[in-house]
Amino acid sequence: MNTLLRACAVGTVLAAGLSLTACSSSPSSAQQSFPYAGSALDVINDNANMPVTVTAGAAREVAVEVRTQTVGRSPQTPAWSLNGDTLILGTPCGASWVGYCEASFAVRVPDGTTVRVNGQEAVVG
């Protein structure tokens, strides 16, 4: 009986692995801009596995881009928002247990803007 159970478990794992390897990797991106006239921006990113890079530009706006790489699932458009001096980044990966999703954020701010990501001063490149 244990041999049968073990064989079923191995078969299930193999079938799941094969179904995911049959899926190709899908890169995608989404972006949005917000008018901004402040001098300091707080960025809230609830997912530590999704890095945030910050650059400066000449425009008086905050521009956000998320780049995702997925296997076996589709990315979602993040629910991000700018409320005063706080930019809240949502996740594009959802809560599904099937598949793989990886993402990174790029935030562009006006020249001279001080940026903190989750309370830590960010290097503006």
Structural account:
- The chain has 125 residues and is α/β, with parallel strands linked by helices.
- The chain has one helix at 2-21; strands at residues 25-35, 40-45, 52-57, 61-71, 81-83, 86-89, 100-110, 114-117, 120-121.
- The protein has one domain.
- The protein is 16% helix and 46% strand.
- The strands form two sheets. A five-stranded mixed beta sheet has the order 5-6-2-8-9, with no helix packed on it. Strands 1-4-7-3 form a four-stranded mixed beta sheet, with no helix packed on it.
- The radius of gyration is 20 Å and the shape is elongated.
- Residues 7-22 have low confidence and may be disordered.
What oligomerization state is this entry in? single chain
Query: What portion of residues is helical?
Result: 10-25%
The percent range for strand residues is: over 45%
Radius of gyration: 20 Å
**Which structural class best describes the helix and strand composition?**
alpha/beta
How are the SSEs placed, and which strands pair?
Blueprint: H1 2-21, E1 25-35, E2 40-45, E3 52-57, E4 61-71, E5 81-83, E6 86-89, E7 100-110, E8 114-117, E9 120-121
Parallel strand pairs: 2-6, 2-8, 3-7
Antiparallel strand pairs: 1-4, 4-7, 5-6, 8-9
Main features:
9 strands, 125 residues, 1 helix, 4-stranded mixed beta sheet, alpha/beta
Can you summarize this structure?
The protein has one domain (25-121).
